[in-house]
Amino acid sequence: MRLYTIDTGNFKLDGGAMFGVVPKSIWNKLNAADENNLCIWSMRCLLIEDGKRLILVDNGIGDKQDARFLGHYHLHGDATLNKSLAKHGFNREDITDVILTHLHFDHCGGSILRVGDKLLPAFPNAVYWSNEEHWNWAVEPNDREKASFLKENILPIKESGQLQFIELPYAKGSSQNNWMSSPPENILKTSFNENIDLRFVSGHTNSMMLPQIRYKEKTIVFMADLLPAAAHIPLPYVMAYDMFPLTTLAEKKLFLEEALRNDYILFFEHDPQIECCTLQLTEKGIRSRDVLALSDL
Protein backbone atom coordinates (compact mmCIF):
# COMPACT_ATOMS: atom_id res chain seq x y z
CA MET A 1 0.00 0.00 0.00
CA ARG A 2 1.06 3.58 -0.72
CA LEU A 3 -0.56 6.86 0.30
CA TYR A 4 -0.37 10.15 -1.61
CA THR A 5 -1.48 13.63 -0.62
CA ILE A 6 -3.70 15.15 -3.33
CA ASP A 7 -3.92 18.94 -3.09
CA THR A 8 -6.82 20.45 -5.02
CA GLY A 9 -6.26 24.12 -4.17
CA ASN A 10 -7.27 26.55 -1.44
CA PHE A 11 -10.41 28.50 -0.70
CA LYS A 12 -11.66 31.00 1.87
CA LEU A 13 -14.39 30.72 4.48
CA ASP A 14 -15.58 33.03 7.22
CA GLY A 15 -13.38 32.64 10.28
CA GLY A 16 -16.23 33.07 12.72
CA ALA A 17 -18.21 30.30 11.03
CA MET A 18 -15.19 28.00 11.08
CA PHE A 19 -14.49 28.49 14.79
CA GLY A 20 -18.03 28.79 16.19
CA VAL A 21 -18.21 30.19 19.70
CA VAL A 22 -14.46 30.78 20.00
CA PRO A 23 -13.74 34.56 20.05
CA LYS A 24 -11.90 36.10 17.12
CA SER A 25 -9.23 37.44 19.49
CA ILE A 26 -8.25 33.77 20.00
CA TRP A 27 -8.86 32.09 16.64
CA ASN A 28 -7.30 34.91 14.63
CA LYS A 29 -3.94 33.91 16.13
CA LEU A 30 -4.41 30.40 14.70
CA ASN A 31 -5.54 31.31 11.18
CA ALA A 32 -5.46 35.05 10.57
CA ALA A 33 -8.44 36.53 8.72
CA ASP A 34 -8.31 39.06 5.90
CA GLU A 35 -10.16 42.38 5.88
CA ASN A 36 -13.42 40.53 5.11
CA ASN A 37 -13.02 38.11 8.03
CA LEU A 38 -12.14 35.27 5.63
CA CYS A 39 -9.49 32.66 6.41
CA ILE A 40 -7.57 30.44 3.98
CA TRP A 41 -8.33 26.71 4.06
CA SER A 42 -6.99 23.84 2.02
CA MET A 43 -8.92 21.15 0.13
CA ARG A 44 -6.47 18.31 0.73
CA CYS A 45 -7.57 14.87 -0.43
CA LEU A 46 -6.01 11.44 -0.06
CA LEU A 47 -5.09 8.81 -2.66
CA ILE A 48 -4.67 5.21 -1.53
CA GLU A 49 -2.88 2.75 -3.80
CA ASP A 50 -3.88 -0.63 -2.43
CA GLY A 51 -3.07 -3.56 -4.69
CA LYS A 52 -5.03 -3.15 -7.89
CA ARG A 53 -7.30 -0.48 -6.37
CA LEU A 54 -6.64 3.24 -6.55
CA ILE A 55 -8.92 4.86 -3.99
CA LEU A 56 -9.49 8.62 -3.84
CA VAL A 57 -10.92 10.11 -0.65
CA ASP A 58 -12.89 13.28 -1.50
CA ASN A 59 -12.06 15.44 -4.52
CA GLY A 60 -12.39 19.14 -3.72
CA ILE A 61 -14.74 21.77 -5.09
CA GLY A 62 -14.28 21.13 -8.81
CA ASP A 63 -14.51 23.82 -11.47
CA LYS A 64 -17.94 23.49 -13.04
CA GLN A 65 -19.71 26.13 -10.94
CA ASP A 66 -20.18 29.60 -12.39
CA ALA A 67 -17.90 32.53 -11.60
CA ARG A 68 -20.43 34.06 -9.21
CA PHE A 69 -20.53 30.93 -7.06
CA LEU A 70 -16.79 30.40 -7.07
CA GLY A 71 -16.27 34.08 -6.30
CA HIS A 72 -17.84 33.59 -2.88
CA TYR A 73 -15.03 31.17 -1.95
CA HIS A 74 -11.98 32.87 -3.50
CA LEU A 75 -10.35 29.77 -4.97
CA HIS A 76 -6.60 30.19 -5.30
CA GLY A 77 -3.30 28.36 -5.46
CA ASP A 78 -1.54 26.42 -8.20
CA ALA A 79 -2.65 22.94 -7.12
CA THR A 80 -5.45 21.13 -8.93
CA LEU A 81 -6.76 17.60 -8.74
CA ASN A 82 -5.38 16.73 -12.18
CA LYS A 83 -1.94 18.21 -11.44
CA SER A 84 -1.72 16.41 -8.12
CA LEU A 85 -2.67 13.06 -9.63
CA ALA A 86 -0.17 13.56 -12.45
CA LYS A 87 2.57 14.38 -9.95
CA HIS A 88 2.28 10.80 -8.71
CA GLY A 89 1.91 9.27 -12.17
CA PHE A 90 -1.88 8.89 -12.26
CA ASN A 91 -4.90 10.38 -14.00
CA ARG A 92 -8.64 10.41 -13.39
CA GLU A 93 -9.20 7.30 -15.51
CA ASP A 94 -6.97 5.30 -13.14
CA ILE A 95 -9.20 5.82 -10.11
CA THR A 96 -11.12 2.65 -9.18
CA ASP A 97 -12.96 3.97 -6.10
CA VAL A 98 -14.02 7.36 -4.77
CA ILE A 99 -14.89 7.48 -1.08
CA LEU A 100 -17.02 10.56 -0.41
CA THR A 101 -16.81 11.42 3.27
CA HIS A 102 -19.93 13.54 2.77
CA LEU A 103 -21.61 15.45 -0.01
CA HIS A 104 -20.89 19.09 0.82
CA PHE A 105 -19.68 20.89 -2.29
CA ASP A 106 -16.08 21.38 -1.12
CA HIS A 107 -15.69 17.62 -0.65
CA CYS A 108 -17.50 16.19 -3.67
CA GLY A 109 -17.60 18.97 -6.30
CA GLY A 110 -14.82 17.32 -8.29
CA SER A 111 -16.92 14.17 -8.70
CA ILE A 112 -18.72 15.54 -11.77
CA LEU A 113 -17.49 17.40 -14.84
CA ARG A 114 -19.51 19.74 -17.02
CA VAL A 115 -18.88 18.76 -20.65
CA GLY A 116 -20.91 21.00 -22.93
CA ASP A 117 -24.46 20.69 -21.61
CA LYS A 118 -23.81 17.34 -19.93
CA LEU A 119 -22.80 16.47 -16.37
CA LEU A 120 -20.51 13.44 -16.45
CA PRO A 121 -18.51 11.47 -13.87
CA ALA A 122 -14.99 12.84 -13.50
CA PHE A 123 -13.76 9.30 -12.73
CA PRO A 124 -15.32 7.15 -15.46
CA ASN A 125 -13.92 3.85 -14.19
CA ALA A 126 -14.60 4.35 -10.49
CA VAL A 127 -17.23 3.24 -8.02
CA TYR A 128 -18.45 6.20 -5.96
CA TRP A 129 -19.04 5.26 -2.32
CA SER A 130 -21.51 6.99 0.01
CA ASN A 131 -24.07 5.58 2.43
CA GLU A 132 -27.82 5.55 2.06
CA GLU A 133 -28.56 7.58 5.17
CA HIS A 134 -26.25 10.43 4.20
CA TRP A 135 -27.33 10.26 0.57
CA ASN A 136 -30.98 10.69 1.51
CA TRP A 137 -30.03 13.52 3.87
CA ALA A 138 -28.24 15.28 1.01
CA VAL A 139 -30.85 14.86 -1.74
CA GLU A 140 -33.64 16.04 0.57
CA PRO A 141 -31.71 18.67 2.53
CA ASN A 142 -32.87 20.79 5.42
CA ASP A 143 -33.14 24.53 4.81
CA ARG A 144 -30.03 25.34 6.82
CA GLU A 145 -27.73 22.92 5.01
CA LYS A 146 -29.10 22.81 1.47
CA ALA A 147 -26.73 25.50 0.18
CA SER A 148 -23.91 22.99 0.75
CA PHE A 149 -25.65 20.15 -1.13
CA LEU A 150 -25.61 21.05 -4.82
CA LYS A 151 -27.72 18.73 -6.95
CA GLU A 152 -25.34 19.01 -9.91
CA ASN A 153 -22.60 17.49 -7.71
CA ILE A 154 -24.76 14.68 -6.41
CA LEU A 155 -27.58 13.44 -8.66
CA PRO A 156 -25.39 12.73 -11.73
CA ILE A 157 -23.40 10.23 -9.63
CA LYS A 158 -26.48 8.07 -9.20
CA GLU A 159 -27.62 8.64 -12.77
CA SER A 160 -24.26 7.32 -14.01
CA GLY A 161 -24.85 3.95 -12.36
CA GLN A 162 -21.50 4.24 -10.55
CA LEU A 163 -22.90 4.88 -7.05
CA GLN A 164 -22.76 2.23 -4.33
CA PHE A 165 -23.68 2.46 -0.66
CA ILE A 166 -21.67 1.39 2.35
CA GLU A 167 -23.87 -0.48 4.79
CA LEU A 168 -24.06 1.37 8.08
CA PRO A 169 -23.15 -0.67 11.16
CA TYR A 170 -26.48 -0.26 12.91
CA ALA A 171 -29.98 -1.42 12.22
CA LYS A 172 -32.45 0.71 10.32
CA GLY A 173 -34.53 2.74 12.68
CA SER A 174 -31.65 3.25 15.13
CA SER A 175 -29.65 5.85 13.19
CA GLN A 176 -27.14 8.26 14.58
CA ASN A 177 -29.83 10.90 14.49
CA ASN A 178 -30.62 9.57 17.97
CA TRP A 179 -27.33 11.15 19.08
CA MET A 180 -28.93 14.56 18.81
CA SER A 181 -30.68 13.88 22.12
CA SER A 182 -28.10 11.64 23.83
CA PRO A 183 -24.28 11.60 23.53
CA PRO A 184 -22.71 8.64 21.71
CA GLU A 185 -20.97 5.99 23.76
CA ASN A 186 -18.71 5.00 20.88
CA ILE A 187 -18.05 5.88 17.25
CA LEU A 188 -19.41 3.22 14.93
CA LYS A 189 -17.11 1.63 12.40
CA THR A 190 -17.33 -0.78 9.48
CA SER A 191 -14.79 -2.40 7.17
CA PHE A 192 -14.21 -1.11 3.63
CA ASN A 193 -11.43 -3.61 2.88
CA GLU A 194 -8.69 -5.37 4.82
CA ASN A 195 -6.68 -2.16 5.22
CA ILE A 196 -9.40 0.49 5.50
CA ASP A 197 -12.24 0.96 7.98
CA LEU A 198 -14.89 3.66 7.81
CA ARG A 199 -16.01 5.48 10.95
CA PHE A 200 -19.41 7.20 11.09
CA VAL A 201 -20.02 10.54 12.80
CA SER A 202 -23.09 12.75 12.65
CA GLY A 203 -22.38 16.09 14.33
CA HIS A 204 -21.24 17.97 11.24
CA THR A 205 -23.76 16.30 8.95
CA ASN A 206 -25.65 13.04 9.08
CA SER A 207 -23.50 9.87 8.73
CA MET A 208 -20.24 11.43 7.58
CA MET A 209 -17.59 8.76 6.91
CA LEU A 210 -13.99 8.97 8.15
CA PRO A 211 -11.56 6.50 6.53
CA GLN A 212 -9.18 4.86 8.98
CA ILE A 213 -6.15 3.30 7.27
CA ARG A 214 -3.56 0.78 8.47
CA TYR A 215 -0.28 1.89 6.91
CA LYS A 216 3.32 0.99 7.74
CA GLU A 217 2.31 -0.24 11.19
CA LYS A 218 0.58 3.10 11.83
CA THR A 219 -3.08 4.09 11.90
CA ILE A 220 -4.02 7.17 9.87
CA VAL A 221 -7.46 8.73 10.16
CA PHE A 222 -8.80 11.08 7.48
CA MET A 223 -10.55 13.68 9.61
CA ALA A 224 -12.84 15.33 7.00
CA ASP A 225 -14.96 17.86 8.93
CA LEU A 226 -14.91 16.27 12.38
CA LEU A 227 -11.57 18.06 12.79
CA PRO A 228 -11.10 20.32 9.75
CA ALA A 229 -7.71 21.51 11.00
CA ALA A 230 -5.29 21.01 13.87
CA ALA A 231 -6.65 24.25 15.33
CA HIS A 232 -9.95 22.43 15.93
CA ILE A 233 -8.48 19.84 18.31
CA PRO A 234 -9.54 21.69 21.52
CA LEU A 235 -13.02 20.45 22.38
CA PRO A 236 -14.94 23.78 22.24
CA TYR A 237 -13.60 24.56 18.75
CA VAL A 238 -16.68 23.40 16.83
CA MET A 239 -17.72 24.94 13.51
CA ALA A 240 -20.91 26.96 13.25
CA TYR A 241 -21.51 24.94 10.07
CA ASP A 242 -22.12 21.77 12.14
CA MET A 243 -25.73 20.68 12.23
CA PHE A 244 -25.52 19.20 15.73
CA PRO A 245 -22.66 20.85 17.64
CA LEU A 246 -23.20 18.96 20.90
CA THR A 247 -22.96 15.71 18.95
CA THR A 248 -19.72 16.95 17.39
CA LEU A 249 -18.43 17.77 20.87
CA ALA A 250 -19.18 14.25 22.11
CA GLU A 251 -17.73 12.64 18.97
CA LYS A 252 -14.55 14.70 19.20
CA LYS A 253 -14.05 13.76 22.85
CA LEU A 254 -14.49 10.05 22.15
CA PHE A 255 -12.28 10.11 19.09
CA LEU A 256 -9.46 12.17 20.58
CA GLU A 257 -9.25 9.93 23.64
CA GLU A 258 -9.05 6.85 21.40
CA ALA A 259 -6.54 8.50 19.06
CA LEU A 260 -4.31 9.53 21.95
CA ARG A 261 -4.49 6.07 23.52
CA ASN A 262 -3.56 4.35 20.24
CA ASP A 263 -1.17 6.96 18.84
CA TYR A 264 -3.18 7.59 15.67
CA ILE A 265 -1.96 9.98 12.99
CA LEU A 266 -4.60 12.57 12.05
CA PHE A 267 -4.78 13.69 8.40
CA PHE A 268 -6.37 17.13 7.96
CA GLU A 269 -8.38 18.03 4.88
CA HIS A 270 -8.69 21.77 5.49
CA ASP A 271 -5.63 22.82 7.49
CA PRO A 272 -3.71 25.33 5.32
CA GLN A 273 -0.34 24.44 6.90
CA ILE A 274 -0.48 21.14 8.77
CA GLU A 275 -1.01 17.94 6.81
CA CYS A 276 -0.85 15.46 9.70
CA CYS A 277 -0.20 15.37 13.42
CA THR A 278 -0.07 13.07 16.41
CA LEU A 279 -1.49 13.89 19.84
CA GLN A 280 -0.34 14.41 23.40
CA LEU A 281 -2.02 15.05 26.73
CA THR A 282 -1.24 18.47 28.21
CA GLU A 283 -2.47 20.40 31.22
CA LYS A 284 -5.00 22.03 28.87
CA GLY A 285 -6.25 18.73 27.50
CA ILE A 286 -5.41 16.80 24.32
CA ARG A 287 -3.35 18.83 21.87
CA SER A 288 -1.18 18.23 18.81
CA ARG A 289 2.30 16.76 19.32
CA ASP A 290 4.36 15.99 16.22
CA VAL A 291 3.52 17.71 12.92
CA LEU A 292 4.34 15.67 9.84
CA ALA A 293 3.48 14.87 6.23
CA LEU A 294 2.62 11.53 4.68
CA SER A 295 5.96 11.63 2.89
CA ASP A 296 7.66 11.53 6.29
CA LEU A 297 6.30 8.05 7.02
Q: Can you offer a commentary on this structure?
A:
Mean pLDDT is 94; it is low at 171-181. It is built from 8 helices and 15 strands. Helix content is 20%, strand content 32%. The chain has helices at 15-19, 24-27, 67-71, 81-87, 105-108, 132-139, 151-159, 245-262, and strands at residues 2-14, 38-50, 53-57, 97-99, 112-115, 118-121, 127-131, 163-166, 188-193, 196-201, 208-215, 218-222, 265-267, 276-282, 285-292. The longest helix has 18 residues, at 245-262. The chain is globular. 43% of the residues are buried. The chain has 297 residues and is an alpha/beta fold. The protein has one domain (2-296): Ribonuclease Z/Hydroxyacylglutathione hydrolase-like (Metallo-beta-lactamase, Chain A). The strands form 3 sheets. The protein has a 7-stranded mixed sheet, covered by helices on one side.
Q: What does this entry show, briefly?
A:
With 297 residues, the chain is α/β, with parallel strands linked by helices. The protein is built from 8 helices and 15 strands.
What key attributes describe this structure?
alpha/beta, globular, 6-stranded mixed β-sheet, Metallo-beta-lactamase, Chain A, 7-stranded mixed β-sheet, 297 residues
Task: Count helical runs.
Answer: 8
Low-confidence stretches: 171-181
How far is the first residue's CA from the last residue's CA? Answer: 12 Å
CATH superfamily (homologous) name: Ribonuclease Z/Hydroxyacylglutathione hydrolase-like
Query: What characterizes the major β-sheet?
Result: 7 strands, mixed
Number of strands: 15
Under CATH at level 1, the class stands as: Alpha Beta
- Strand line-up in the sheet with most strands: 9-10-11-12-13-14-15
Shape summary: globular
